[in-house]
Recover the amino acids of this structure.
């Protein structure tokens, strides 16, 4: 379960797109959204429960004052990391990609576009494409 889900504020809006494994896309339509923000981190979480399988979710960890624009994922970037749970047993790693975001920190309103590639611990490649528009 995400840190944001435990300590964040529930948000309204949408976070949707596709999570494709080896070129085979499945829809992602987050139903529960949370935003956690403090002096060291901004975390955006969206998830949907898949009956009998578990949660499919996307979590973005960002600098708390991330500026508007396009950011590459990386330790020294304002787009620090991402965790994608594709509703199966795969653990994804080696993320690369971008986040284009329009933050309104004052009103806790965030919208953007996400494009990521990741691999599981085997040979599967995942492509994650999503858009979000969330407000606390």
């Amino acid at each position: 379960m995400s840190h944001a889900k435990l300590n964040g504020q529930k948000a309204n809006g949408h976070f949707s797109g596709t999570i494709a494994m080896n070129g085979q896309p499945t829809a992602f339509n987050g139903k529960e959204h949370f935003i956690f923000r403090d002096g060291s981190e901004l975390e955006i979480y969206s998830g949907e429960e898949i009956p009998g399988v578990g949660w499919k979710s996307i979590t973005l960890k960002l600098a708390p004052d991330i500026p508007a624009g396009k950011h590459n994922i990386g330790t020294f970037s304002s787009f620090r990391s991402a965790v994608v749970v594709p509703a199966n047993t795969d653990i994804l790693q080696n993320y690369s990609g971008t986040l284009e975001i329009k933050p309104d920190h004052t009103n806790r309103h965030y919208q953007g576009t996400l494009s990521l590639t990741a691999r599981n611990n085997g040979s599967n490649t995942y492509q994650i494409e999503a858009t979000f528009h969330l407000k606390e």
Q: What stands out?
A: The two ends are 19 Å apart (CA to CA). The longest helix spans residues 3-7. Confidence is low (pLDDT under 50) at residues 1-6.
